[in-house]
Specification:
single chain, mainly alpha, two-stranded parallel sheet, 5 helices, elongated
């Protein structure tokens, strides 16, 4: 059985932390100084809808990635397992960063909720020894 490399934990932490730091900088840095985002209600609705659709697609794809990458495989090399996890996290991080950009453009604090959900999902998808056993990962 393979051992989870420390670098994979570091990559996971960084992909989880980047959208959180981005949102924190916007919340504490950009929002207090600006009162009017200069975005109409129709534009805000469109951006929020696109962000929601992108988030749903990213969550769905992140759950399908392991099925596609491990199809008909009895064991999985450690490199392929690491690639699979990074792709899962990157899909969710991309959607989270996009929601952060929408939050910056619209100043709608309600956008922090789906952002927090995506960050929490990335946190729960950390590599575990149970996954190593389930995918029969070999070094």
């Amino acid at each position: 059985m393979a051992r989870i490399p420390q670098s994979l934990y570091l990559i996971h932490f960084m992909l989880m932390l980047s959208p959180a730091l981005f949102a924190a900088v916007i919340y504490f840095g950009a929002l207090p100084g600006e009162t009017n985002p200069g975005t109409s209600n129709d534009e805000i609705r469109i951006l929020q809808t696109v962000a929601a659709v992108l988030a749903v697609i990213a969550v769905g794809l992140s759950q399908l990635v392991p099925r596609f990458l491990t199809r008909d495989e009895k064991s999985l090399p450690l490199r392929r397992f690491a690639s699979m996890k990074i792709v899962q996290w990157a899909l969710l991080e991309g959607a989270a960063v996009f929601i952060g950009v929408v939050f910056f453009l619209t100043h709608q604090k309600s956008m922090l909720i789906p952002l927090a959900v995506l960050i929490a999902l990335i946190a729960f998808m950390r590599p575990t020894t149970e996954e190593i056993v389930r995918f029969n990962v070999k070094e």
